[in-house]
Specification:
single chain, 348 residues, alpha+beta, Elongation Factor Tu (Ef-tu), domain 3, six-stranded antiparallel β-barrel, five-stranded mixed β-sheet, 17 strands, 34% helix
């Protein structure tokens, strides 16, 4: 049943009896015109009360039914990707690793006499980087050279004797035809000439052996010079002058097996560990964008060089080798890298 406006106004009539616990409200201002009270303020107050009652009722009804009044949410703005950043299908972490490099050691055991390079030096293939004491090797070479000279002289002497024997045999053959010599003397000359020929052949073989010994002594002497097996950069010096070096570990830990560590900077690649669950999305030759913590804000073009056909069962990853499109001297071995694998066909 709808209440009339007059009933509403009577309900809003203020109690004028003083209350000790409730403060006396401020008197309502009444505007008078021509000696009569104006009803406009009372009407406005009633309408406001009705509006508040309606809102409260709606709120109570909504709470009773378990539904809340919907609140309009501001429209969501879509993320604006950077125009320069390519969209990667997969991102993996890895490190820069040289594909050709290692510790260069000595082929013989001896005391290190010279180290001709320092860390950071660029060396060429075949360049001498250190020398080991080669006194014994030089003495061996000298003995081989002396033995070769002796064999050469022996061959020369036997050839001279053989020439004399051949001449003696010819004279005796001529005398034998005239009857001025015996058959025994002729046969003796023939035997001596043949024996000298055999001795010459043996001496020539000995001379060839002596020459081979000289070559072997040269090879052994050359082993005391430690050479770079390939062109690269020296990144670490492992031994100092005066230390004992050897191709095998010996001497109770006092023997060095390496002299320097050499790296071919042209063979640098990034080895990234990719989760085996995503390895099926990687292809050989796939485009990759590399970033480095040491070079913030820079990107480097690369491509998948190889997928190692073996998984790490402890980490559940597969190693992927990534080759640089262009080398950069600022990229060094063991730098941390992040590889963003681009979708097939993306040329960003």
């Amino acid at each position: 049943m709808t209440a009339t406006v007059a009933d509403r106004l009577r309900e809003l009539k203020l109690d004028r009896e003083p209350m000790r616990s409730v403060p006396k409200p401020a008197p309502v201002l009444r505007a008078e015109r021509n000696g009569r009270r104006s009803m406009l303020p009372l009407l406005l107050t009633g309408m406001a009360s009705l509006a508040l009652g309606s809102v409260a009722t709606a709120a109570l009804l909504g709470g009773a039914t378990g539904t809340a009044a919907p609140v309009a949410a501001p429209p969501a703005r879509p993320a604006q990707p950077s125009a320069d950043a390519p969209v990667a299908s997969l991102v993996a972490a890895g490190f820069v690793v040289p594909q050709r490099g290692g510790t260069v050691g000595s082929q013989v055991t001896g005391q290190l006499r010279q180290v001709l390079v320092a860390e950071g030096d660029h060396v060429q293939a075949g360049q001498i980087i250190a020398r080991v004491d080669n006194s014994d090797a030089r003495a061996g070479l000298d003995r081989a050279i002396a033995a070769q000279a002796e064999a050469r002289q022996t061959v020369a002497a036997l050839r001279h004797q053989h020439r004399q024997a051949v001449a003696t045999l010819a004279r005796r053959q001529a005398l034998s035809q005239r009857g001025f010599t015996t058959m025994a003397a002729l046969e003796e000359s023939q035997a001596e000439s043949g024996m000298l020929g055999a001795r010459i052949a043996a001496a020539e073989a000995a001379l060839s052996g002596a020459a081979a010994s000289v070559r072997a002594a040269h090879v052994m002497l050359d082993r005391y010079a430690i050479r770079a097996p390939f062109s690269g950069v020296v990144i670490e010096k492992n031994a100092e002058v005066g230390e004992l070096v050897s191709p095998i570990s010996a001497g109770g830990g006092f023997t060095r097996t390496g002299v320097v560590t050499l790296v071919d900077m042209a063979s640098l690649q990034v080895e990234a560990d990719v989760n085996e669950a995503y390895i099926s999305g990687i292809r050989s030759g796939q485009r990759v964008v590399l970033t480095f913590d040491a070079l913030p804000g820079e990107r480097f073009e690369a491509a998948v060089a190889a997928i190692v056909p073996s998984a790490d069962r402890n980490r559940a990853t597969v190693r992927v080798n990534i080759a640089f499109v262009r080398s950069d001297p600022r990229i060094l071995p063991q730098m941390a890298a992040k590889a963003a694998f681009l979708p097939t066909g993306d040329r960003s």
